[in-house]
């Protein structure tokens, strides 16, 4: 954005610099007979968009004419005539433009001659008075023709160099603006990424234990006590619990022990 603002301000300054007001003859002269207008114009540069200003006194004027009338100081059919100062001519197009002064020289009034002092001639003669009925001779035809030609050709003002040719050049178009790449942006510092939040482990759902059905075991028949050497008997069943019936192996073992115990008891009785 800052670069665009600088470019716009530069373009405005270029436009201001192109539009120039140029005063004819300045700085060392003007629109008059004493200025070398041809040399002045050769030292200037006139561009499209400039303004050409004429400043002059009341005995001068400004006529814009064609090239043909410029060469011969002709006054016929001028492009424009300006008699009031200052006069401004905008230079709107490239090419040559021609300006002259169309005023004739101002006739000079001859001062009256001083009276002749009386002569001390002893004769006291005086010049003879003019003869009655005589008139002065009119100017010759050559003088009249010269004055008429001077008026038609612009008088001595134009013929004495009071004319100027302005060569206007086209203003060079400014180069197209170059696209300025935007400044490389500094990458932001890397931001520390917070560690991911731990995923909570799924809470195991506590399944209530299913009640185990109580199996009712029918009571087993009481086992007769054995007189065997072991003399061990199965533990009585716990109240509330029903003992499982003995297997066939246990039943066979108990039966064999009972028989052996019985014969042992009989032999002891016989030995008495």
Automatic annotation (TrEMBL):
Annotated ranges, domain Phytocyanin: 20-119
Keyword Signal applies: yes
Compositional bias ranges of the Pro residues kind: 108-131, 172-212, 219-238
Region (Disordered): 101-141, 167-249
Coiled coil: none
Signal peptide: 1-19
CDD domains xrefs: Phytocyanin (cd04216)
InterPro entries, per the entry: Cupredoxin, Phytocyanin-like, Phytocyanin_dom
Molecular-function annotations in GO: electron transfer activity
Pfam families attached to this UniProt entry: Cu_bind_like (PF02298)
One cellular-component annotation, GO: plasma membrane
Record key words, sorted: Signal
Alphabetized PANTHER family for the sequence: BLUE COPPER PROTEIN, OS12G0150500 PROTEIN
Protein name: Cupredoxin
